[in-house]
């Protein structure tokens, strides 16, 4: 177990199983020996101090095959939550179900037994050639589905109550280069769209020209997308949640995080620019057509495919358009880029954005970059990276510096 994990577990005795979830191989082998798991890696964490820790797991079996699962630790005595997991496992007629340890207040469950994503089982029942790609317990499951007589598709499963909002985001960007939605089942929470061949922009080196094109694409979204039915981003709530998240896992950084959030609020107060935004814009949300990737992709482009396609439209909303540019910066810094002046770090993106008609206020951009970094400050913990406390501290410090 990581030393930081041990300290976190010691600081939260209300969750007796927290330590086991953070080092999940022993837990999975003890509760589900029939799964034949050789290794277990934490891929994603969602933590509410004193209440619960939910982990997305990548499991590898004795044959080397990988699969998704989840592990949950709750407060001692939270029998109602464990009972819900148990019932969802009993309803799982596709996968491995769920196993609950009431004494330690923990559970492990296959992704197919996720009670908030019942559509996963339906997808797996109805289709062959399904390759799961992403699993965020309780929120999203994504897979590629090979077409029996046609092109591959991407299928995303959400909680049924969230799927309509995703569809609204796609409709808002109609006419722009985004994946075509091919089927929607709101009661199942499933959204199918065309598979986009190519390589994500974050994986391509020496891509300054493509960054410029991405900036122009962002400007087109802000200029052309339709606002009907979209929600307004709650910046105040997002900043408050970010500070709370930092306080939960890195209390020593909480004061600096709160100070940065306060300066962002004050600095952006009264700024009235509102447009349709992607909401999670970053280089990994832009797919570059195969013939433009200098051999990085062996796929064939789809007929009529644009040079760049904007994907993952889950967070399309109404906000200050500079929030999208800040999001790009935040993703860069959160994944290891050295924090610095946004005007320099984002120069090719900003050049393309302004050439296509976008307007940039440098002070407001810095504050949006600070907000985006702060909102990603606990990503090192969520992704369970080695040395995650130092990673959280680095991001909080970067956010604070941007507000000065």
From TrEMBL:
InterPro entries, per the entry: Kinase-like_dom_sf
Gene3D superfamilies: 3.90.1200.10
UniProt keywords, alphabetically: Transferase
GO molecular function annotations of the record: transferase activity
Record protein name field: Phosphotransferase enzyme family protein
